[in-house]
Design brief:
The complex is a heterodimer of chains A (about 525) and B (about 375).
Chain A lengths: L3 H19 L5 H13 L2 H13 L5 H9 L3 E4 L5 E7 L2 E5 L6 E2 L6 E3 L4 H18 L2 H11 L5 H13 L3 H18 L3 H11 L5 H10 L7 H50 L6 H18 L4 H26 L8 H23 L15 E5 L2 E4 H23 L1 H11 L1 H6 L4 H24 L10 H14 L4 H22 L1 H18 L14
Antiparallel strand pairs in A: 1-2, 1-5, 2-3, 3-4, 6-7
Chain B lengths: L1 H11 L10 H20 L11 H27 L6 H20 L12 H5 L15 H25 L4 H19 L12 E2 L3 E2 L2 E2 L3 H27 L1 H11 L1 H6 L4 H27 L1 E2 L6 H14 L5 H20 L3 H16 L3 H14 L11
Antiparallel strand pairs in B: 1-4, 2-3
Classes of the chains: A mainly alpha (about 525), B mainly alpha (about 375).
């Protein structure tokens, strides 16, 4: 099925291959020559030199051209050796691109290797070619995808050839897509075009979608136009579905944050009937603990979070016990006064943090294993940190349920929450249980702070922005009911994210607030009211 | 004359727990201070011993607005046990009503010189006034709306909440959520209330410049007069049959309900009355301060009002007013000397007052007096 155009392309490629064969026996020493030539080359000579390097299958070639296109490639004016300059935290670090060794060199003697647009175009194609032929399956797949939008006849030819020898199914699929894209665009045989379009219809790649949208001209009544329209419709349906999944994921993510923030409150409020307005500040303390731990362990960001979780639990928990012992126990049975006093404490804690750490927001680094995305398909990405926080929230929830239902402390806590006087009569030290319960609730708030520090900046007002939402979750779910808190947190999180695209973020949270206010009218005890004797 | 002294004596030696103790002496004092300050500002030259600066007049006027707001909270919290953490919402809504009138008075003197639209609407390239701005060029209508909208909100909210017997901390959190939701919505530009910046750059009221001393003194005196009237009216309400039922609801709502009172109706009307006072405070506040923005809705503002009342002594009317004046005076002084320390001080006040002065300063002094006057009588615990 070779047509004239393809034949000519084939011959140009053949001649290029022959040309490269003629210099294919370049040895290591001639490579150093080429490197040196690169340093002194005029802009017009750069591409031929790079071509020779590419053909010599130089293993440094890829990293070299990438540094070059980023503008990091320099050379030493006296020795003509290539150098790479990277800025790390504002300090210039010089390395040898061939060995990767860091060098102690004055940057004054280094000169940048200049790049212009034609060089950039060449480099982009060359890096794709090198990755296609030399990389592992994952790199090859990435390279093919990078080529989707900037396909030209040469690359297409290259891919068509490589497709035959390609071993990985995934890369094969991507290559088939590339070939089908070309066929769908310009093949002479309409049936082949339709077949290609049908293949493309299974893909969610944005470039494929753009192409099909272009082909789906409403005026085009040929079989190509019709099948393209059907393909676009199918793809759009799938994209809409995955967008819904995405919304659901963000809702679950927000819900897990709400759950973490509210669950400590559910304990103190549910068990002790104490409204702790300083609960948000316990979250804030946890977040600042994460920040401080990271300052103490600057070289171990990945590990510091494991240190931060227990540390935040201890810091916030200790603060909770302190507050309970010094203030709250004197206000027993006076919930409104407790509310005011704990509000005062929250003001003091906020100002304290402002005085110590400054009112500015602080950035907490995300460990490398938590950053990045999980790519399910080209339209659905799950950010890893949100995913981990979701899992973490569930873990915390489960361990809390186990703690309350399977341990002695849990038994005492439940006994006190159901009937304080009877519990005391049975020999439970209610004062101790109160302090521990409050410490536990606050400690979990501290853990929530660790999780939040991974999502937002850490500032003195961090807690305040969550306190009202947390109360809403607890009230919505039903006081003293952990399962209710779980359901309420995820319901509110998802509802918020569903409303958000329709109404905007602010109106979404207003709607949710209004909904809860109305809901409370109907069911003042929340979703899962306590029943039986525990209710009073 | 004898009846007057008898009345005064009766008022002064009222027991602190009786509704509206010492209202009359305070009204007289307020009248005196207002007269003194007004005359001092208008008729004495700068540098004279009796001169009162315009800054002080405005400051006093602001304090009196806060006092009015505190009174509103005291009426529901002190007398009915409804701890509202959302009264700033009614205050701010009233303020916005007045702000809209003042905005319309600017006319074509704004930065963009548009005769019809306020600057922020020109900036958002709106071509006509939103429908809800209609009529706000009339002061009487604006004030009517500024009072009735918060009253309506309080009615709807109270009706829903009290009917389904939402009480205690639940109600407090709900009121807080209410003001929070309003704050979020007023921050939006699309609402048509100036978004983040709110309403400001006011020029004049009823044709009188807001910058002139006479206008300021007049606003201050009006605030003082209205505060006095509201004090007397509130006292009358609390001493009436209605007030007695309200007290009964506070002390034992269940019992009052079993006696046949529709407690939720009493609570709703009291809540509406309180909201109107708060809105009135907002109406008076805005022309004196010269700005209203969504920051007034922040939950912390509402809670600050509660602490004024707690410090002064709730359920005493005068205590709330004195608490507001005292705390705000302290705030003005402290933030000037020590801006960092104010939140520490405020936080400590919350903790210390709830722990050691559950009846506030007013109750504390009354207890002291009672102890020294009649040391043998044990004062029974009257309020929770």
């Amino acid at each position: 099925m070779f047509r004239i155009a393809q034949l000519t392309k084939f011959f140009t490629l053949l001649s290029a291959l022959l040309f490269s064969l003629s210099i294919g026996s370049v040895h290591a020493e001639s490579r150093t020559d080429l490197y040196e030539q690169l340093t002194g080359a005029k802009l017009s000579e750069v591409v031929p030199i790079l071509k020779q390097l590419e053909d010599s299958r130089d293993e440094n070639f890829l990293s070299l051209i990438q540094e070059m296109v980023d503008g990091n490639l320099y050379y030493d004016k006296t020795t003509l050796a290539l150098r790479v300059i990277n800025k790390v935290d504002g300090v210039k670090i010089v390395t040898d691109p061939l060995t990767g060794a860091t060098l102690e060199v004055e940057t004054g003697n280094l000169k940048k290797i200049r790049v212009n647009n034609s060089v950039r175009v060449y480099i982009r194609g060359a890096s794709a070619r090198v990755q296609l032929t030399q990389g592992n399956a994952k790199q090859r797949f990435g390279a093919v995808r990078d080529l989707f939008a900037k396909m030209d006849a040469d690359t297409l030819q290259l891919i068509t050839e490589l497709r035959v020898t390609e071993s990985s199914k995934k890369v094969q699929g991507a290559m088939d897509l590339v070939i089908a894209m070309d066929q769908a665009k310009q093949d002479a045989d309409p049936e082949l075009r339709v077949a290609a379009i049908n293949l493309l219809a299974t893909s969610l790649e944005p470039d494929v979608r753009n192409l099909l949208t272009a082909l789906a001209d409403p005026a085009d009544e040929t079989i190509v136009g019709i099948s393209a329209r059907a393909a676009v419709e199918g793809i759009e349906g799938k994209v809409a579905f995955y967008n819904k999944v995405d919304t659901l994921f963000f809702g679950l993510s927000l819900g897990s944050v709400l759950l973490l923030a509210a669950i400590g409150l559910a304990i103190t409020f549910g068990v002790m009937g104490v409204i702790n307005m300083a609960h948000g500040e316990m979250i804030m303390l946890g977040a600042y603990t994460t920040y401080v731990i990271q300052l103490l362990l600057p070289n171990a960001i990945d590990i510091s979070i494991w240190v931060a979780i227990p540390a935040a639990f201890l810091v916030s928990g200790a603060m909770g016990v302190l507050i309970e012992r010094t203030v709250i126990r004197f206000l027993h049975g006076r919930p409104l006064e407790t509310l005011l006093a704990t509000f005062g404490i929250s003001l003091i804690l906020q100002q304290l943090v402002r005085t110590i750490f400054s009112p500015l927001n602080r950035q907490v680094n995300t460990p490398s294993w938590m950053s990045g995305q999980l790519e399910i398909n080209p339209v659905l990405f799950l950010t890893l940190n949100r995913f981990y926080i979701f899992v973490f929230a569930l873990l915390v929830f489960v361990s809390l349920v186990v703690l309350l239902n399977k341990t002695n402390l849990g038994l005492h806590v439940r006994a006190v929450s159901q009937n304080r006087n009877m519990a005391r009569a049975m020999g439970i030290k209610t004062a101790k249980v109160d302090a521990l319960t409050f410490g536990l609730g606050s400690g979990i708030a501290g853990i929530a702070g660790v999780a939040l520090s991974q999502l937002t900046n850490v500032g003195p007002n961090l807690g305040q922005s969550y306190i009202i939402d947390s109360f809403m979750v607890v009230v919505f779910g039903g006081v003293g009911n952990l399962l209710g808190t779980l359901v309420a947190a995820f319901t509110l999180g998802i509802a918020n994210k569903i409303f958000e695209p329709i109404t905007g973020a602010v109106l979404a949270s207003i709607l949710v607030l209004v909904f809860i206010i109305l809901f409370i009218q109907k069911r003042p005890q929340g979703l899962f009211p306590q029943r039986g004797r525990a209710a009073e | 004359m004898t009846t007057l002294t008898a009345l005064l004596q009766h008022q002064i030696f009222k027991r602190s727990s009786e509704p509206g103790a010492a209202v009359m002496p305070f009204v007289v004092l307020l009248f005196g201070v207002t007269l003194f300050a007004s005359v001092g500002n208008l008729w004495f030259a700068e540098g004279s011993l009796f001169y009162v600066s315009t800054y002080t007049i405005t400051l006093l006027g602001k304090y009196l607005c806060y006092a009015l707001l505190a009174l509103a909270v005291d009426v529901v919290w002190g007398y009915c046990g409804i701890l509202s953490l959302g009264h700033a919402a009614f205050f701010a809504l009233g303020g916005y009503g007045m702000g809209m009138y003042l905005m319309r008075q600017i006319g074509d003197r704004g930065v963009y010189g548009n005769p019809l639209l306020p600057d922020f609407m020109v900036f958002l390239s709106w071509d006509k006034l939103p429908w809800y701005w209609t009529g706000f060029d009339n002061l009487a209508f604006a004030v009517l709306m500024a009072l009735s909208v918060p009253a309506l909100l309080a009615f709807v909210f109270g009706w829903l909440a009290f009917r389904s017997r939402v009480t205690g901390v639940y109600l407090s959190i709900m009121t807080q959520a209410l003001t929070y939701a309003l704050m979020l919505s007023f921050f939006r530009n699309e609402m048509g209330f100036g978004g983040n910046n709110g309403l400001t750059d006011f020029k004049d009221i009823l044709g009188f410049s807001l910058q002139s001393d006479t206008t300021r003194v007049f606003l201050f005196a009006t605030t003082a007069a209205l505060l006095a009237i509201i004090l007397v009216v509130s006292q009358a309400i609390m001493n009436s049959r209605f007030g007695k039922v309200i007290l009964a609801v506070r002390d034992s709502e269940g019992r009052a309900r079993f006696l046949g009172y529709r407690t939720e109706r009493y609570k709703v009307w009291l809540f509406v009355y309180s909201a109107i006072i708060a809105a009135l405070a907002g109406v008076l506040y805005v022309p004196q301060v010269g700005i209203i923005n969504p920051g007034e809705f922040t939950p912390i503002n509402s809670i600050e009002v509660v602490i004024w009342v707690a410090i002064g002594g709730r359920g005493t009317l005068i205590g709330a007013v004195l608490g507001a004046l005292l705390v705000n005076y302290a705030k003005t002084r402290l933030t000037a000397i020590f801006p960092e320390a104010w939140l520490f001080a405020l936080g400590a006040l919350f903790v210390l007052v709830t722990l050691f002065l559950p009846k506030g300063l007013f109750g504390f002094f009354a207890d002291m007096r009672a102890r020294f006057a009649r040391p043998s009588v044990v004062n029974p615990e009257e309020t929770r």
